[in-house]
Design a protein that fits this description.
This protein is mainly α. It has one domain. It is about 80% helix and about 0% strand. The chain is built from 3 helices and no strands. It has helices spanning about 10-25, 30-50, 55-75. The longest helix has 25 residues, at about 30-50. The mean pLDDT is about 90.
């Protein structure tokens, strides 16, 4: 049986897919929301990475969060 922390990877997975769908929208508001959802997925993946000691995943999420912040600033 999964522990609660083990389920975080599936939430992070779903958030990542939703964010990608939103960012690909032609509507500025949806794109903007998509970057926020991407940032939430970065947090979820980082929690999962800490839980599993996946240091490369944590580093990747920090870098992707920086890129998502850059994208967020460019949607305005």
């Amino acid at each position: 049986m999964y522990k609660a922390l083990d389920l975080i990877q599936w939430a992070a997975f779903a958030l990542s897919l939703l964010a990608a769908w939103l960012v690909a929208s032609t509507q500025e508001r949806r794109r903007n929301v998509g970057f926020w959802v991407f940032l939430l997925s970065n947090v979820a993946w980082t929690v999962w990475g800490v839980h599993t000691s996946a240091h490369a995943l944590i580093a990747l999420q920090v870098c992707l969060a920086a890129l998502n912040l850059r994208g967020l600033s460019k949607t305005k």
